[in-house]
């Protein structure tokens, strides 16, 4: 798992730089999530128990345009396409049934997101 986690960390750093390069402001959202918090989120209906955040393989990025927080897929759609071009295991939350535009992950099996 460690090699994949390191690949994810390196790729997410590139993703953040790319977001700035194409004109967006970026701040960190959630990255690592404890299994306890993931279970609580699942209970509340705001997340899933087996989230890749618990494996240090997912990051939520907050995007801003001219200082205004973006709540839809603006910017994320372009970044998601860039992210997915890195390989088949790179997943973007905009493709999930329950849209999660600021979520980017590297999936061990290409399915979990
Ligand atoms: Zn997420």
**What structural class do the secondary elements suggest?**
alpha+beta
Overall mean pLDDT stands at 95
Strand content: 15-25%
Number of helices: 3
Q: Over the alpha carbons, how many angstroms does the gyration radius reach?
A: 13 Å
Q: Point out poorly predicted stretches.
A: none
Outline the biggest β-sheet.
Answer: 5 strands, antiparallel
Q: Helical residue percent? A: 25-40%
Q: How many β-strands, per DSSP? A: 5
H/E element order: HEHEEHEE
Hetero ligands: zinc ion
Overall form = globular
Q: Report the end-to-end length measured between terminal Cα atoms.
A: 15 Å
Topology:
Layout: H1 2-21, E1 25-28, H2 35-44, E2 58-65, E3 68-69, H3 76-84, E4 90-92, E5 103-106
Antiparallel strand pairs: 1-2, 2-3, 2-5, 4-5
Zinc ion binds at residues 53, 58, 60, 100, 103.
Give a verbal description of the structure.
- The structure is a single chain.
- By secondary structure, the chain is of the alpha+beta class.
- Helices cover 35% and strands 19% of the residues.
- It has three helices and five strands; from the N terminus they run H-E-H-E-E-H-E-E.
- Strands 1, 2, 3, 4 and 5 form a five-stranded antiparallel β-sheet that branches.
- A hairpin with a 2-residue loop joins strand 2 and strand 3.
- The radius of gyration is 13 Å and the shape is globular.
- The protein starts with a helix and ends in a 7-residue tail after the last strand.
- The mean pLDDT is 95.
- Zinc ion binds next to strand 2.
């Amino acid at each position: 798992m460690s090699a994949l986690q390191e690949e994810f960390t390196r790729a997410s750093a590139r993703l953040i730089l790319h977001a700035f390069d194409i004109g967006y402001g970026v701040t960190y959202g959630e990255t690592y999530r404890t299994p306890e918090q993931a279970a609580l989120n699942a209970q509340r209906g705001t997340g899933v128990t087996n989230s890749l955040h618990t494996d240090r393989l997912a990051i939520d990025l907050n995007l801003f345009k001219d200082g205004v927080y973006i709540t839809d897929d603006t910017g994320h759609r372009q970044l998601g396409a860039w992210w997915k071009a890195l390989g088949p295991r790179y997943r973007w939350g905009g493709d999930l049934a329950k849209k999660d535009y600021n979520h980017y992950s590297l999936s061990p099996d290409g399915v979990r997101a």
